[in-house]
Amino acid sequence: MWLKPDEVLLKNALKLWVMEASNDYFVLQRRRGYGEGGGGLTGLLVGTLDTVLDSTAKVAPFRILHQTPDSQVYWSIACGATKEEINQHWEWLQQNIMRTLSVFDSSEDITSFVQGKIRGLIAEEGKVSLVLEEDPEKFREALLRFEKWFGLPEREKLVTYYSCSYWRGRVPCQGWLYLSTNFLSFYSYLLGAEVKLIISWDEIWKLEKTSNVILAESIHVAAHGEDHYFSMFMHLPETFLLMEQLADYSVKRLFDKETFQGDPALGDPLQITKRGLETRARNEQFRAFFRLPREENLLEVYESFLWVPFSHFNTLGKICVSESYLCFASQDGSQCYVIIPIREVVGVEKPDVGSKAVTVCIRGKRALRFSEVREYERLASGIHRRCGVVASPQHTATGEVSGEVCHALIEHFEDNPEEVTLMVGQKSSSKAVSTEALMTVFHPQDAENLDPKMLKEKMKEQSWNIHFAEYGRGMSMFRTKKTRDLIVRGVPEALRGELWLLFSGAVNDMATHPGYYSELVEQSLGTSTLATDEIERDLHRSLPEHPAFQSDTGISALRRVLTAYAYRNPKIGYCQAMNILTSVLLLYAKEEEAFWLLVAVCERMLPDYFNRRIIGALVDQAVFEELIREQLSQLTEHMTDMTFFSSVSLSWFLTLFVSVLPIESAVNVVDCFFYDGIKAILQLGLAVLDYNMDHLLSCRDDAEAVTILNKFFDSVTNKDSPLPHTVQQAPVGNNDKMAHTKVDIIDLIRESYEKYGNIRSEEVESMRRRNKLYVIQTLEDTTKQNVLRVVSQEVKFTAAHLDDLYALFKRQHFLSCYWTMDSPALLHHDPSLPYLEQYQLGHQQFRTLFSFLGPWSHCANQDALSLWAFRLLDENQDGLVNFKEFCCGLDILLSGSFTDKLKMLFKLHLPPVSSLDVPEDGIIRKSPEKGRGKVDLQAYLKQWQDELLKKEESIKDLPRIDQCQFIQFSKTLYNLFHGDPDEESLYRAVARVTSLLLRMEEVGRRLQEPSSPPKTSPVQSPADGELPTVLDHSSETPSLPGPPGTASGPLEVEWSFAFEQILASLLNEPDLVRFFEKPVDIQAKLVYAKSAQLKAQANP
């Protein structure tokens, strides 16, 4: 590696370096302790210095110095990890520089020319690979150390590195922590003690910041059942954040089959940088806090004061600017923030130079004044520029719409709702997309009703109208503590849909995607998928007690929303609980609004909730358990098994308490959820357990605890609800003496905020990230146990060996995915598939693992043998082999009987396995992907029935092998013996068997044709122990006869052998029987494969 020229004090370095070569201008040196004569005390000291000192020039074992004859100054210009690498640099200098230097007259000119040339080479190298790094020179040095110490493939992208200590028991080892795209690596070398650690991100179970008596603050990493602690970081929060980002990136890409399609900076694993990860984390936090669409990225941040009209003072905070939004959040703890869509901005007043103020005028005759903005002119011009860009109404990832156009568009649709009605027909149901919330259709409010509940409802509406007048209405409304207080007291029925859209951010999606839902309904009309079948099955189970869903109007609207979303997001498709949630949304929101609310819930507010493995819900349950331990310690001491809380609370999270609370109470919970996110659900869950603490502490078992909670939920009421009794749900519990006293939902929610409102959203997100790794790995472990239970019934491997084989197989699958986004294994990986199909290998990955574990690793035609084995094991011909197929084939080769092994070798030479015209890989998967196309359930049932009726294959069922296949079979036998101590005797044994079979075939043919014996024997029968001419193993391909009727020499008559003939002949050779029955040390094979698996990727 070329280095930026740096002056070297050669006098002090003579004891650490040995000269290897020199000329008039350059010196090549080797570090003491490396190569020949290395070791000893000098080697130990040098190795320790190399690890501790942060300079590649000091740690690389080879270097090149530049010198001039009349100068005592030396300059380091290159270093290398191997002698081959440094020799390439040395030869380049000899060929390209030495001749040029002779034309210079002075030493200064020579040194200046060499330095300029080296800097040019470095700049040329860094144009592509290091352009995104903050300090390319230092990063180059760290990259060299990383490659030298760990031997990972060149494609592995180093992201960043840190100096830290790794604790081995109570002893710290000072060294370097390297964070790359797929691995966490650590290296330390102190006085001869080398510590090298490589952990892939997908193997980590736990990643957290910890502290104890010995370690003030450290990072804890749990993987492979071992705990690793790293401490003494200069920037521990930054390090931990990057580790979280890399672990999360790996989990999403490898386990959940998610790609960063909307994030080009992270779409390619080879282009990930520290800066890119930090930017991504900042963007995610920005979008989550302000509930913005996924397309928005934080572009600029300004510190400023905002004039708050309702408080009559300036509040300090930060302005956050994205492509389409201008947001402000205060820093004084008042929780005041405001979101201004650029589409609602109608103008920007001329900046006030004296107060450095920018005034933004927005729709509704309102203005926001930001003062003391350091770069106020830049802010004003940026807003002007964004307002001036006019795009089409259809939203794109980078398009903005001017305030006037979008304002007119929104007002037009608000004033003319009938124009967004889409006429469609579906299953003889209602033919129009509903433009009214179902609650207004089935329970219209009577303005003249003076019922006390209706009067209270009017008072709530008046409170909100006053709030709107003071704080604004719509997206640019100020969100403060008073807003939350109004939410806690309950949202009026008439305003619920509007406020849900506002606080969830769904209003932004709907405003920037006009007509999108109508197009989806048209496109999804008549589609038939697994998702649509499940939707039809659950339609009448969605709030069946509500009149709206006892009619065709409500059922049709629910069908359209769910089908349209399944069409929009086939990765999720449809999941149970989505129907219940969507039913509630349709009660208070128009059909299109309900669709966008569902999008906000599924894709932003509850990520990964509604998929086959409900990972998001499981993660939040783990967070809930953690909060129970912190907040309700009495309960955790009594309930030793925390899984109870997971089982009982799953429906709370999936349906936002809608499935356990009466509908008139549940909607108040949904109000809080749309304002505060998952934090509101966690708080309410804690409040429910706290309220029932005494009863839960006295229970004897889980069933009694479940009964107590169910009765409590039945007792929850909403005394202020204006809904009639025909709409309100009746309690489902038994009205016995143990029934709870009535609990008002507003009091329960208020108590949850008073007791647990100090839980911050940032803490919840941190707990989510921390628990996600554990949840994913637990699911993976469950999958492994299911796979091993099935496979163990088919093979002779021990449980420990099967466990190791699964780890190797899964790792090989991931190794094919680490450095590319389009590997066949990654593209076909789908967690929703049966567990046996989740991890599969293509031919290239299979060949590598087969070479490590197969019994005949020295076979001369190993590649051909692995290809044939792959085709044989790939029963469904999808170009992939699953773990069961792999183990069944390997079990025969390692533990099978002589007959089983020979039968498998025999089948490898039968068509189409051994055919040359079969493609090696790339066959399109036949199984339909989840959510796409019609699933052929009959095909799955037939496949399952065939597997049940499958009988053991008899040797009589095998077809005969023809002459060409027999020749290749014999050659394979010869190749198997390569390198064996008894190679010569085995070679002669096969020759005798081949000769015997050919004689038997010749005799049999003569007996069948006694009247006209052939003039020329088809095969010259050799003497015993000699190889037949046609089977000469020195040639690469056998001499094959031509088709009938062609002049092809003496081989004109077709002949073939049955498997029984070959088996009987080979059984007569004790040497061959001993060779195939020789026991294989499976444990040694596994140990070797573990050590060589990663190296094989580095040296393909």
TrEMBL record:
Keywords: Calcium, Cytoplasm, GTPase activation, Metal-binding, Repeat. Residues 1004-1047 are annotated as: Disordered. It comes from the Eukaryota. PROSITE patterns: EF_HAND_1, EF_HAND_2, TBC_RABGAP. One of its GO terms (biological process) is glomerular filtration. Residues 861-896 form the EF-hand domain. It is found in: Cytoplasm, Cytosol. One of its GO terms (cellular component) is cytosol. InterPro entries: EF-hand-dom_pair (IPR011992), EF_Hand_1_Ca_BS (IPR018247), EF_hand_dom (IPR002048), GRAM (IPR004182), PH-like_dom_sf (IPR011993), Rab-GAP-TBC_dom (IPR000195), Rab-GAP_TBC_sf (IPR035969), TBC1D8B_PH-GRAM1 (IPR036012). GO terms for molecular function: calcium ion binding; GTPase activator activity. The keyword DNA-binding does not apply. Residues 490-677 form the Rab-GAP TBC domain. Involved in vesicular recycling, probably as a RAB11B GTPase-activating protein. Interacts (via domain Rab-GAP TBC) with RAB11B (in GTP-bound form). This is TBC1 domain family member 8B. It comes from Aldrovandia affinis. The lineage of its organism: Eukaryota, Metazoa, Chordata, Craniata, Vertebrata.
